[in-house]
Amino acid sequence: MTDVLLEVENLTVEFPTDDGVVTAVRGVSYELRQGESLGIVGESGSGKSVTSMAILGLLPKNARVSGSVRFRGEELLGRSDSELSGFRGRKIAMVFQDPLASLNPVYTIGDQIAEAMLAHNPVSKQVAHARALELLELVGIPNAKQRMGAYPHELSGGMKQRVVIAIAMANNPDVIIADEPTTALDVTVQAQVLEALEAAREITGAALVLITHDLGVIAGHANRLCVMYAGRLVETGSVDDIFYAPRMPYTLGLLGSLPRIDSKTRLTPIVGSPPSALNMPPGCPFGPRCPMFAAKCEAEEPPLYYATPDHHAACHFHQRLIDVKPGEIFQ
Amino acid sequence: MTTVLRVQDLVKHFPVRSRGVIRKRIGDVHAVCGVSLDLQERETLGLVGESGCGKTTTARLLLNLVPATNGEVWYGKRNLLSLSRKQMRPLRRELQIVFQDPFASLDPRMTVAELIAEPLRIHGRYAEGGRAKVRELMKQVGLNPEHANRFAHEFSGGQRQRIGIARALALEPKVLVLDEPVSALDVSIRAGVINLLADLQRELGLSYLFVSHDLSVVRHVADRVAVMYLGRIVELAPTEALFTRAAHPYTQALISAIPVPDPRKERTRRRIILVGDVPSPVDPPSGCRFRTRCFKYAELSEPEKLKCVNEVPALVDRGHGHPAACHYAEALQML
């Protein structure tokens, strides 16, 4: 059997606000196995980023996190900052959406990559710098030698993101969590960054959690996929299962509303918009937008049913979706 | 087909000034350099390119919202760029724009009804039947007229963009410039706005200039596509032709970089990864502006390279059925 690196179980995150408690993540469970690439897809506000921040204890102090997050069997939730820093960067590295916020503007990028290594390893500065140069070349930065002395503001967005990936690789982590790593970038630059991320995976052998709203990026870079909606996982399975045989109406609707570069069929939008976390509808959160809505959906929130042993969907009527095209249920 | 808008050799340079008190002009950002295109009646022309390629500036120049450095924009028998603001005003009824950010483009202190009525009032058309017209517009763009007294912040992004579209449609324009109209929207919302735009075009006989960085969206809406790179149009083709027979290396790289939501296809696709970044428009490369990142240029012999360095490739048909600005253009199927 493949061994499990990261186990998230029943993770729930609540934020107290003036208007009441917002439950951003509601009982999310997943496993990340060695060497795999797990995609997490969802729209703005679906809780996909909060989930990954909770794993590394990066949420603000007022967040109430419950459930369990285990890395190689060790519980991470409830640990102190100093205990967690032994995991952060060394075992689990993170790549955020905005590289400018991840880099320190007053240090050169060479120093910053070396620093990541020095923080966790007893190596000399020379060794760390030599390794930093090597990493810069690996992520495809041209003229890496000159760039070592550059400051973040001197680099373009795509290059900065590749520097962040180099930092993530610095300690040969077991897991890399990439949260919308290419969202702010142009497509040709996105291709460069995704290639750097693939290189990082190949060289460090790390498993990847790829969080994005772009199903196209997932299709090319993930083996397994979790679809999130309103703070919950609503479908999980292999990428092929979910793209070719989705069993949750939301996933089906998402695929049908996606303009694709390789075809020109009319899009089938999902009506309405996602519910506010302060005002969740009873039962299935997708109910109000679902064309298959029935009394049972309002009465009872669907659990993740087994569609096949490795494919789960949170819909009471998931069996009705076998071999159904988006246009058949969405108008 | 009749041409509604004809753009010729449009040029826009923005001055770069030195710091300090004197702020001497020390250079120019070459934002748009010799763009020529035409927009046909009832047609959607897609204008695509990456950040900083000059597509938004082109869109604004077209409507005379920023003064051009050089060039002509012919609407009917008039060159818009030679008109004063006053002369331009009646024409604005016919040429409207929808902006990208539906959060920034709507006045937060106005209700939806006021927002949509504003263009009617400005052009003196609200007095007779304005109220009914606003309700009708709201219905047309898929908003509930009962929500007329709500404020913009009470709506979702997609609904706000519909308000923006209703404002643009209020004066019954002939040409609509859409500047990244769906880029700020989530996937499930975006499809609805794309469909709405298509339906409105059919019903009202509009011509669209659709500016976008997203080729997948453009494929769905456009009849023809112009691809821009660093201020110049590098390829101009009917949509199908562009996606099946892209001739310019930049277009090929662009198409190959766009992920397809189809795992099996995605695993077998050929991807062209460009090296480096877009050069600064303050000091663009001589000759062909794409050559510094061009995979084709890298493989050319020295004498062949000279042509790219010294000679600006003209946007002409080199036997591919549509114009492409590359000396060594070669049609490729990239999907």
UniProtKB/TrEMBL annotation, chain A:
Coiled-coil segments: none
Cellular component annotations (GO), alphabetically ordered: plasma membrane
An example Gene Ontology biological process: peptide transport
Record key words, sorted: ATP-binding, Cell membrane, Membrane, Nucleotide-binding, Transport
Transmembrane spans: none
SMART domains in the cross-refs: AAA
A Pfam family recorded for this sequence: ABC_tran
Compartments, as annotated in UniProt: Cell membrane
Source organism, top-level taxon: Bacteria
ABC transporter domain: residues covered: 6-255
Primary residence: membrane
InterPro entries: AAA+_ATPase, ABC_Ni/Peptide_Import, ABC_transporter-like_ATP-bd, ABC_transporter-like_CS, Oligopep_ABC_C, P-loop_NTPase
Membrane topology recorded in Swiss-Prot or TrEMBL: Peripheral membrane protein
MF annotations from Gene Ontology: ATP binding; ATP hydrolysis activity
Family affiliation: Belongs to the ABC transporter superfamily.
Name recorded for this polypeptide: ABC transporter domain-containing protein
Organism of this sequence: Rhizocola hellebori
From TrEMBL, chain B:
Annotated protein name in UniProt: ABC transporter ATP-binding protein
Organism name: Rhizocola hellebori
GO function terms (MF aspect): ATP binding; ATP hydrolysis activity
PROSITE patterns: ABC_TRANSPORTER_1 (PS00211), ABC_TRANSPORTER_2 (PS50893)
Record key words, sorted: ATP-binding, Nucleotide-binding, Transport
PANTHER family: D,D-DIPEPTIDE TRANSPORT ATP-BINDING PROTEIN DDPF-RELATED, TRANSPORT ATP-BINDING PROTEIN
GO biological process: peptide transport; transmembrane transport
Stated family: Belongs to the ABC transporter superfamily.
InterPro entries reported in the protein's UniProt record: AAA+_ATPase, ABC_transp_ATP-bind, ABC_transporter-like_ATP-bd, ABC_transporter-like_CS, Oligopep_ABC_C, P-loop_NTPase
